[in-house]
Every structure is written in C-alpha cells, then in structure tokens.
Amino acid sequence: LARRVRDAELSQAAERDGLKSMRSWLGGHCRLSAAAAARVVGNGRVLAHLPALAEAHDAGLVSAEQVAVAATALTPERLAAAVEQGVELGEVDAVLTGLAVEQPHTDFVHAVRHYLSRLDPDGPEPDPTEGRRLSLAKHADGTLSGRFELDAVGGEKLQAALESFVQADRPAGHERSRAQRLGDALVQLCDTSLAAGRLPTLRTVKAHLAVVIDLDDLAGTATGPEAARMGFGAVISAARARWLACDSTVSRVVFGPDGAPLDLGREQRLADRHLRRAVELRDGGCVFAGCHAPTWWAEVHHLVHWLDGGETNLQNSALLCERHHTQVHHGFRVERQPDGRWRTWRPDGTEIGVPSPLLQPAA
Q1: Given its phi and psi angles, is residue 257 left (phi above 0), alpha (psi -120 to 50 degrees) or beta?
Q2: Looking at the structure, do residues 93 and 30 belong to the same domain, yes or no?
Q3: By Cβ atoms counted within 10 A, which residue in 12, 114, 269, 343 is the most buried?
C-alpha cells in the first residue's frame, strides 16, 4: 500500500481529484484516520529514499513507530535541503538503520533530530510554537479524548488558567480526584469563554453550543435517549438537551415555507444566518467528494451562480470548504441527488468516486 501511495503522490493523483495531498485523499476515499494516512504517506517516502531501513522494517527488525520518526526527515523541503548540501542519503540510511536495529528508541529519535538540526545549523532560533500539538478523538458515544504537546510558555499559560478554576472551587469534603477537577476546570474555562462572547466569529456566526432537537422531545418529560444532535455530531438525550436549554436561546428551524426565511430571492446575494444554519444542518460539512471539512471551515456556495441568475435559497446552496469552493469556480462541479447524496465531477466531466456507506440508511 505504501508503495502504491508513493506512486500516486508522485503522479499528483490527489490534486487530480481536487484534494491537496495524499493524506487528505486517503482519509476521504479509504476511510483512514489522519494519523494512519500520514503514516502510510511517510512510509512510502521511506521506502523510496531509505531502502535499507524499509527492508529492516519488512523483516520485523524496525518498528512502524521508528519508520514514522524517520519519515519526518523526508518531507519535500528537507529532501531539497539535503540535495542542496550534498548529503548522501545512502549513508544516512545506513546509520539510521543500524541505530534503529541495535539501539534504544530514544537514541534513534535523538539521531534523527540531530540530522535535522545539521540540515540548518545556522538557521534562526526554532519557533517554540512549531511543537504544539492537540489531537482530539470523538468516540461512538459522543465522549471526547485527546492528547496534546505544548511548549514551556504555552504550558504555563494553560496551567495558570486551569489552576484558577481548580483552586476557586474546592468545597470541603470533596472527593473528586485531581484529574477529575482538572477536567472540570477545562470545561468551565470553555463555558466562561463562550459566555463572554469575545471568541472569534466563524462565518458570520458567534462561537456557540448548538443542539438540534424535535419540538415534541424538547417540550416532553421523558428522558428520550439519543433524541438530540449537537453541532459537532454528538448525540445526547432529550433530558440533557432540556438542561442545556435552561440557559440558552431556543430557535425554530423548519425546512419549508412556514419556518425561518430560507428563500432570500434575488435581491440578497449572501446567505444570512438563517439560511446558513439550514445549509449546515442539511449538509453537515463540505460536500465535495472525499472531503470531511467541518461546517465552520465552509462557505455557502450558489450552485447556479448569483451572477447567472441563481437565487439565494436552500435548494441552490451547497456547503464547501475554501479550497473546494475555489475548485468549483475553476471547473469542478457538485450536484445534489434526489436521495440527498452529493456527487462531484472533474473539469473533464469524469466523476470522482467515493466508497459507498458501510451501512445503508433504513428505508
């Protein structure tokens, strides 16, 4: 797989399908996670440039984690720097393979970092923010877990903010662990930031907690498991939604002539917040084949361009991320089918295929 992905990367197959990289292509067309896609792409580069290390990996002498570490030295920019400085990759391959097979993993990591530092020995002081990472994983029940890495200053800022909430709420006799109280503090920090209303505005909409629930469930008294859907896809009970509604603005959204003004006609070119909300609820993110960009990255696109007489309404709207909105204005085409699915065509008229859903919706 890694070799075939490498061949596809060199032939710019992802760009032909309107995507930016093979990592994004693998995520959209092969259902790989971002981490798995990056690993396959990186391993393909290792196979091409470090054959000895690749052979040791195939023989079970080198771990996938070590290959992934080596792949960080094989980005296009770093390969170009190596060529410019006359670095012989064969020698690098031999040294790294020996370290990977014979030495502890930490020594191997230090060796790769040393090599990278020698590529630019006189460069500027490294930007500490380059090491910042935050990965979030949503589970089937809607819960969220993650891991992060922060530079020293960024870490101090986070600790200072969280500790203020931890120390401000220490009731006598509490039994919650330190880890639980830090989790509480993180949620409270988010609550405070959202309530202050000073977060950046996303596509004309202030950052907020969104819950979609049928009116009957909201007005009822039953617990109603899995009755409401939140903005990032989590599913919660009707009871939980009612709890959130106690301190929220409740808006009615009806897909029809009796609800919010979804049809803005010809006089208004840009979608207002009512139409944008309806498009977000319908599309759920960028509709371009293979793209999973969320709603807050996306723009409302006129399927029939406004300058060509297209109206500003739900039927003539599609949610597209900035990259694919540009692609559609340069020859690509998206179209919504009667069953609600979206299809995408290249400028040459051929369709971009995506795998069928693993589970077909119930009739």
Answers
A1: alpha
A2: yes
A3: 343
The CATH number given to whatever domain includes residue 307 is 1.10.30
The total of structural domains in the chain comes to: 3
SS3 content of the chain, % helix, strand, coil (to 5): 45, 10, 40
How does strand 211-213 pair with strand 317-321? unpaired
Residue 195 lies in a domain: no
Q: What pLDDT band is residue 346 in, cutting at 50, 70 and 90?
A: very high
Assign 362 a pLDDT band (cuts: 50, 70, 90). Answer: very low
Q: Which one of 104, 121, 138 terminates a domain?
A: 121
Q: Comparing 203 with 330, which gets the higher pLDDT?
A: 330
Helices marked H in the chain — which ranges? 2-10, 13-16, 22-29, 34-49, 51-58, 64-71, 76-84, 89-102, 105-119, 152-168, 178-196, 215-219, 238-245, 273-283, 322-328
In a domain, 232, yes or no: yes
Q: Grade residue 170 by pLDDT with cuts at 50, 70 and 90.
A: low
Q: Is residue 231 part of a domain?
A: yes
Residue 162: pLDDT over 90: yes
Please indicate, yes or no, if residue 105 is contained in any of the structural domains: yes
Which residue range is the domain that position 70 belongs to? 2-121
Same structural domain, 23 and 83: yes
Identify the residue with better confidence: 5 or 260: 5
pLDDT classification of 349: cutoffs 50, 70, 90: very high
Residue 351 has pLDDT above 90, yes or no: yes
Q: Which residue has the higher pLDDT, 8 or 245?
A: 8
User: Residue 221: phi, psi to the nearest 5?
Assistant: -120, -10
Of residues 278, 272, 280, the one with CA closest to residue 320: 280
Residue whose structure tokens are 């699915």: 341
CA distance 225 to 304: 40
Task: Quote the Cα angle for 182-185-187, to 5°.
Answer: 115
pLDDT of 314 reads: 87
Helix, strand or coil for residue 309?
A: coil
Joined tokens for residue 95: 């040294």
Amino acid, res. 26: L
Same structural domain, 6 and 107 = yes
| Cα gap 131→129, rounded to integer Å | 5
